[in-house]
Amino acid sequence: MNKCYVLCLTLLVTFCLVSSASAKCAANYTLAECGPLCPPACGMVTCLALKCEKDKRCYCTGGYSFSRKYNRCVKNQDCER
């Protein structure tokens, strides 16, 4: 096999794996008072956004949810219900 072909195939597989993890993450919502929750499987270490806007989603580390009251990620047990 050509080295370029192998490299391109490796990059494509990596991209597909990352894309599928993101899709699972984006579909995982929490309660109405809190924004979307990013499960640990997504591999995200920190909050990607500290504010939810109309057409955007924000994500927090596993075990945390976005609190509209505090405008940041908080532990799930601290998320107002």
UniProtKB/TrEMBL annotation:
Keyword annotations from UniProtKB, A to Z: Signal
InterPro entries, alphabetized: Ser_inhib-like_sf (IPR036084)
Domain of life: Eukaryota
Segment forming the signal sequence: 1-23
Protein name: TIL domain-containing protein
